[in-house]
């Protein structure tokens, strides 16, 4: 008889937010796989529990190698508890590989629901919550970051991102460039912790604030694209936007497609404008 894989949510700040079942599972599991065993030790001490089972590390660096080992434990009948540093496993944290491998082997997978920075920030943002997308962390490189943001420039659902405090200013500046200076957003910092802060406002305003330096764990919530009709701009402006994107490293074909999405016209319209401008310049 196979065992059970339990995904357990852990506090994103205040340890008092730990679900009651977390302590029970920590005490009962045959194996506890933790993203950081030192942080797990602090958590168990705060909860007043002592794991009876074997504690192993399970983080990005050893996730691929350790997954088969844990699946072997599950196939042998063990109850394996997976916890990450904060929030739910698999959500921008280790876990997906193990869940997929367990499901493939018909192993039961269940969860202990717990705190989530994504949902907490979304609820506190003051932005629409009926439809949203979680985009995780943006790429570190400027060109890749801009490209990723352009992919969702026309997305009407509210967008949620995780970000490092050291890159927040660059990210908000990029969002201002791609989404527009007036797009509403909220920066949620140190959620449920002593210095919790939620800063709301237009992207340009938030970018200026972040340029002064921000600390802590960050979740950014951005309003979706407006539902208004296509933006009315002339051919010269379309050509200018394509040129800006090319100078930033995009290929012309990609730049034309992105501008077409921005202004709500067929790609052929933007292409013809670019060709016409090139002929005029020649």
What does this structure look like?
- Helix 2 links the parallel strand 2 and strand 3.
- The longest helix is centred in the C-terminal third of the chain and has 15 residues.
- This protein has eleven helices and ten strands.
- The chain is α/β, with parallel strands linked by helices and 282 residues long.
- Helix 3 runs parallel beside helix 4 and helix 6 crosses helix 7.
- The strands form two sheets. It has a five-stranded parallel sheet with strand order 3-2-4-1-5, with helices on both faces. It has a five-stranded mixed sheet with strand order 6-7-10-8-9.
- The termini are far apart.
Features:
five-stranded parallel sheet; five-stranded mixed sheet; about 280 residues; alpha/beta
What is the count of β-strands? 10
Termini gap:
76 Å
Which sequence of SSEs, written as H and E, runs from N to C? EHEHEHEHEHEHEHEEHEHHH
What Rg is obtained from the alpha carbons, in whole angstroms?
23 Å
How is the largest sheet built, in terms of strand order? Answer: 3-2-4-1-5
In terms of per-residue confidence, which ranges show pLDDT below 50 for 5 or more consecutive residues? Answer: none
In terms of structural class, how would the helical and strand content be classed?
A: alpha/beta
Write the layout of secondary structure elements.
Layout: E1 4-8, H1 20-28, E2 31-34, H2 37-47, E3 54-57, H3 63-75, E4 79-83, H4 96-104, E5 108-112, H5 117-125, E6 132-137, H6 142-151, E7 158-163, H7 168-179, E8 184-189, E9 197-202, H8 203-210, E10 218-222, H9 235-247, H10 252-263, H11 267-281
Parallel strand pairs: 1-4, 1-5, 2-3, 2-4, 6-7
Antiparallel strand pairs: 7-10, 8-9, 8-10
């Amino acid at each position: 008889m196979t065992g059970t894989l339990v995904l357990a949510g852990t506090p994103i700040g205040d340890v008092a937010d730990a679900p009651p079942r977390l302590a029970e599972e920590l005490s009962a599991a045959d194996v506890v796989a933790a993203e950081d065993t030192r942080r797990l030790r602090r958590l168990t001490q705060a909860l007043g529990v002592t794991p009876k089972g074997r504690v192993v590390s399970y983080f990005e660096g050893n996730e691929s190698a350790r997954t088969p080992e844990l699946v072997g434990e599950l196939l042998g009948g063990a109850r394996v508890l997976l916890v990450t540093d904060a929030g739910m496993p698999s959500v921008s944290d280790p876990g997906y590989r193990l869940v997929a491998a367990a499901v493939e082997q018909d192993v039961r997978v269940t969860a202990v629901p717990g705190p989530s920075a994504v949902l907490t920030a979304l609820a506190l943002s003051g932005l629409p919550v009926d439809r949203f997308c979680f985009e995780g962390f943006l790429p570190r490189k400027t060109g890749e970051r801009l490209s990723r943001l352009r992919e969702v420039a026309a997305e009407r659902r509210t967008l949620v991102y995780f970000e490092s405090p050291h890159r927040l200013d660059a990210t908000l500046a990029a969002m201002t460039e791609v989404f527009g200076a007036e797009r509403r957003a909220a920066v949620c910092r140190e959620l449920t912790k002593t210095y919790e802060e939620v800063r709301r406002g237009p992207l340009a305003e938030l970018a200026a604030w972040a340029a002064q330096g921000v600390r802590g764990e960050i979740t950014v919530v951005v309003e979706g694209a407006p539902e208004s009709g296509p933006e009315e701009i002339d051919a010269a402006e379309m050509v200018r936007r394509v040129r800006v994107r090319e100078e930033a490293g995009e290929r012309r074909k990609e730049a034309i497609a992105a501008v077409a999405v921005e202004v709500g016209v067929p790609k052929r319209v933007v292409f013809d404008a670019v060709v016409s401008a090139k002929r005029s310049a020649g």
